C-alpha cells in the first residue's frame, strides 16, 4: 500500500515539475492522435454525409459494415498496417514503419469508421427532418449534404471528440506499428504498458493521470459546447 | 407557367392507393383551397403538384410558358428552419435559386421587413416562436417571387393570434400577384382565404366549387356530410 502511495506522490511531483521525459511522451501522443483525428474527420464526415443523403446499391450493407468496423480491435488494425508498411509489404517503399507517421495511419484507420458511422446516423436523422424543405428549395444532393454537415455541427464535434478519445486511449495499434521506441514512437499508452511491466510505477501513473484528465476535460468541453450551442441556436 | 394540369394522376405506396385518378387544372387567379378528411390525400396531392412526389401513373405538367426558371414554392405545416439566423434562412433559399449575393441580402432584408420580423433578423431561426418561424418560412418562400405558392396546413400548429398573422401575410402575398394553393382543415379559414374549394375524399377529387356555393349547397353528398360533420351547428 505504501508503495502505491509513494508512486502516486512521485507521479504528482513529475507532473508538477513538468518532467521533460514525461511531457515529451504526452506531446507525441497528442501530435499523433490529433493528426489522426483530423485526417479521420476529413474522410469520415463527408463519407457519413454522403451515405446519409445518397441512395445507391449496397448502401445498407455499407452501413452495417461501417457500424461493425467501429469495434475494430486496435491490435488487428496494427497488424494489418504493419503488413502493409513492412519492407516486403505493398507500401514498404515509403519506409515509415516504426515512425509517428505509421502510428497516424493506423489510428486514422481505426477511427474513420467511428466518425463516419456516428455522423451518418446524426446526419440522416437531420435529413429526415430537412429533406422535403431542401428539395423544395431546389437543393442538390451535394448542397443538401453540405447544409446538413453545417447544421449538425454541434453534434459532430462530440463525435470527433469520441474519435479522439478512442485514438488517444488505444495501445495495440501504435505498439505494433510504432514499436514503442524511446523518444521516437513512445506515446502515453505504450509507455504505461512498458513502465508498468518494468515496475516504474510513478511514470506509468503520472501518464495515466494525464491521459484520464485529458479525456475528461475534452469530453466536458464537448458537452458544454453542445449544450451552449443548443441553447443558443435551438 | 400556369395552368398546372393534372391528368389521371394516381399515387400509391406499397399498393395502397392514396391519390386515385385525379384530373384537374389549376389556373391563374382564384385562391384554391383543398379540403377533406384526415388521410384524404390533401398533402400528397399538394406534393404531387409541387413536384416533391412523382405520380405512380398519370401526369403533372405546367402548360404555360416559363420565363427563365420555374418559380413555385411550398410552405410546410411544420416549418423547417436551418441552424442559422432568420435572415440567413431567407438568403439560403435565394442563393439556391441562383440569386447573386448582393441581391440576396437586399431581397432578404426587404422580405423580412415585409413580414414584420426585422427585429429578430439576426436571431437564430430555431429559437423563434412557432408563429415567427412560420412567418419566416413564408418569407423564405415569398422572397423567391413565386408565381404559385403551395401552403400545406400553414396554421395547423399555431395559436389563434399567430394564425391570424399568417393569414394576413398570405393575403399580402396574394396581393403581390402570387397564386395561392393551400390545404386546411379549418373551414373558417377555407371560407376566409379561398375562392374555390377542391374537396378530396379517399384520394378522389369529388368536387370543385366556388367557396360560397360549397358551404351553402355543395354538389356532392360526401361534401355535404363532411360539412355537417365539421360544422354540426349548421
Structural commentary:
The complex is a heterodimer of chains A (234) and B (234). By secondary structure, chain A is mainly α. Chain A is 80% helix and 0% strand. Chain A contains 10 helices and no strands. In chain B, helix 5 (160-175) links the parallel strand 6 and strand 7. Chain B has helices at 42-50, 86-96, 101-114, 130-142, 160-175, 187-193, 211-216, 221-230; strands spanning 4-13, 16-26, 32-36, 57-62, 72-75, 148-152, 179-183, 196-201, 204-210. A 6-stranded mixed beta sheet of chain B has the order 5-6-7-3-8-9, sandwiched between helices. In chain B, 37% of the residues lie in helices and 25% in strands. By secondary structure, chain B is α/β, with parallel strands linked by helices. The A-B interface holds A 129-130, 132-133, 135-139, 143, 147, 150-151, 153, 232-234 and B 47, 50, 52, 73-74, 76, 80-84, 92-93, 96-97, 124-127, 140.
Amino acid at each position: 500500500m505504501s508503495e502505491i502511495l509513494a508512486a502516486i506522490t512521485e507521479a504528482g511531483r513529475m507532473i508538477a515539475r513538468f518532467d521533460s521525459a514525461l511531457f515529451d511522451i504526452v506531446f507525441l501522443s497528442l501530435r499523433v492522435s490529433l493528426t489522426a483525428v483530423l485526417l479521420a474527420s476529413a474522410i469520415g464526415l463527408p463519407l457519413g454525409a454522403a451515405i446519409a443523403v445518397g441512395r445507391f446499391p449496397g448502401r445498407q450493407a455499407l452501413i452495417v459494415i461501417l457500424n461493425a468496423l467501429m469495434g475494430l480491435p486496435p491490435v488487428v488494425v496494427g497488424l494489418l498496417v504493419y503488413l502493409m508498411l513492412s519492407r516486403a509489404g505493398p507500401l514498404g517503399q515509403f519506409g515509415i514503419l516504426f515512425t509517428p507517421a505509421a502510428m497516424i495511419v493506423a489510428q486514422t484507420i481505426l477511427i474513420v469508421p467511428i466518425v463516419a458511422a456516428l455522423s451518418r446516423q446524426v446526419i440522416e436523422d437531420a435529413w429526415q427532418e430537412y429533406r422535403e424543405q431542401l428539395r423544395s428549395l431546389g437543393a442538390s444532393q451535394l448542397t443538401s449534404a453540405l447544409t446538413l454537415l453545417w447544421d449538425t455541427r454541434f453534434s459532430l464535434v462530440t463525435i470527433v471528440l469520441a474519435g479522439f478519445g478512442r485514438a488517444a486511449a488505444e495501445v495495440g495499434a501504435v505498439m505494433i506499428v510504432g514499436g514503442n521506441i524511446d523518444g521516437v514512437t513512445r506515446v502515453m499508452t505504450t509507455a504505461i504498458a512498458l513502465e508498468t511491466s518494468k515496475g516504474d510505477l510513478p511514470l506509468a501513473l503520472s501518464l495515466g493521470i494525464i491521459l484520464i484528465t485529458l479525456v475528461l476535460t475534452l469530453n466536458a468541453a464537448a458537452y458544454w459546447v453542445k449544450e451552449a450551442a443548443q441553447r443558443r441556436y435551438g | 407557367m400556369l395552368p398546372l394540369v393534372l391528368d389521371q394522376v394516381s399515387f400509391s405506396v406499397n399498393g395502397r392507393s392514396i391519390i386515385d385518378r385525379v384530373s384537374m387544372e389549376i389556373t391563374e387567379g382564384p385562391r384554391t383551397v383543398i379540403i377533406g378528411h384526415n388521410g384524404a390525400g390533401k398533402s400528397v396531392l399538394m406534393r404531387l403538384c409541387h413536384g416533391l412526389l412523382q405520380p405512380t401513373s398519370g401526369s403533372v405538367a405546367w402548360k404555360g410558358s416559363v420565363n427563365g426558371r420555374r418559380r413555385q414554392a411550398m410552405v410546410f405545416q411544420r416549418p423547417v428552419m436551418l441552424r442559422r439566423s432568420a435572415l440567413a434562412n431567407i438568403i439560403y433559399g435565394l442563393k439556391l435559386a441562383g440569386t447573386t449575393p448582393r441581391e440576396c441580402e437586399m431581397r432578404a432584408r426587404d422580405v423580412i421587413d415585409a413580414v414584420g420580423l426585422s427585429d429578430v433578423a439576426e436571431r437564430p431561426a430555431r429559437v423563434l416562436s412557432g408563429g415567427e418561424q412560420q412567418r419566416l418560412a413564408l418569407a423564405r418562400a415569398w422572397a423567391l417571387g413565386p408565381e404559385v405558392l403551395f401552403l400545406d396546413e400553414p396554421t395547423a400548429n399555431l395559436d389563434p393570434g399567430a394564425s391570424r398573422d399568417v393569414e394576413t401575410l398570405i393575403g399580402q402575398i396574394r396581393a403581390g400577384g402570387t397564386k395561392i394553393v393551400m390545404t386546411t382543415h379549418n373551414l373558417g379559414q377555407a371560407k376566409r382565404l379561398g375562392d374555390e374549394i377542391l374537396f378530396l375524399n379517399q384520394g378522389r377529387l369529388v368536387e370543385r366549387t366556388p367557396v360560397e356555393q360549397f358551404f351553402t349547397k355543395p354538389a356532392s353528398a360526401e361534401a355535404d356530410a363532411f360539412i355537417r360533420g365539421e360544422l354540426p351547428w349548421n
